[in-house]
Amino acid sequence: MKRIFVILVILLIFGSFALSKTYIIGTSADFPPFEYVDNGKYVGFDMDLIRSIANLEGFQVEIRDMSFDSLIPALKSGIIDIAIAGMTITPERLKVVDFSTPYWSADQDVIVKKNSNYNLTVLFGNHKVGVQTGTTGDLWVSDNLIKTNILKSIVRYESFIYALQALLNGEIDAVVLDSPVAERFAQTQPVSIVGIIITNENYGIAVNKGNSELLSKINDGLSKMRSSGQLTSLVDKYFGK
Ligand code: GLN
């Protein structure tokens, strides 16, 4: 009798595991503290956030790392189901994907190599400014500095890891990137913030346009996390002093 019970329990556990759906999560794991690789694992605020939402809503996740500018095409072609990567909700992106309710806000910061004596004028003239391809930092520099001829050259990198390396090697003079990530780099790398560009961005979790079933699961999970205090704990974990 006892043995049958144990077998039934095992079947039930495996059965429910097999029945619960697995969603493929796309991220760009070069964006600490939101997503980065630590000991071969994808960790960070966004990674914990989507895993907690999955727990609350009863689905499994499988994380796929890719370049930031591949995320929306991957959503469109069905290679991934969800994109979470500190992604700003923009009018352009809203034409092709749907976003969850906002979960974070950010501006753009200008970082330079520590002790380089640069200030905000690093954004002018013949300096070289690095960005990650397809980000709102790329968009801001392109629209406001390159198109207006205020700055001569923008250097686009597939990953912030390469942009940071180029900055530290002296190949470029500055990098424009999201403020929370710039602040984290300023704590962990020999770089300083020399300017803040107020862009008032909000991060959202993206799904393919029209995937309202998945979007409502994500929004429901987010709102449960807000009201239970789980979201505050997550903020403390990654941003607490
Ligand atoms: N928030 C910025 C954007 O959406 C940068 C995101 C990132 O590089 N992961 O474009």
Q: Tell how many strands the DSSP assignment holds.
A: 12
Order of helices and strands: HEEEHEHEHEEEHEHEHEEHH
* CATH superfamily grouping of the largest domain: Periplasmic binding protein-like II
Task: Please give the count of helices.
Answer: 9
- Please indicate the percent range of residues in DSSP E strands (runs of 2 or more): 25-35%
**How confident overall, as mean pLDDT?**
94
Poorly predicted runs: none
Radius of gyration: 20 Å
Widest sheet: strand order? 4-1-5-12-6
Q: In the CATH scheme, what's the topology name of the largest domain?
A: D-Maltodextrin-Binding Protein, domain 2
Index terms:
about 240 residues; alpha/beta; D-Maltodextrin-Binding Protein, domain 2; 2 domains; 5-stranded mixed beta sheet; about 30% strand; binds glutamine
Describe the structure.
This protein is 41% helix and 29% strand. By secondary structure, the chain is of the alpha/beta class. It has two domains: 120 residues, 3-Layer(aba) Sandwich (D-Maltodextrin-Binding Protein, domain 2); 96 residues, D-Maltodextrin-Binding Protein, domain 2 (3-Layer(aba) Sandwich). It has a five-stranded mixed beta sheet with strand order 4-1-5-12-6. Strand 2 and strand 3 form a beta hairpin. The longest helix has 18 residues. It is elongated, with a radius of gyration of 20 Å. The structure holds glutamine. The site of glutamine has 12 residues, from loops. Glutamine binds next to loops.
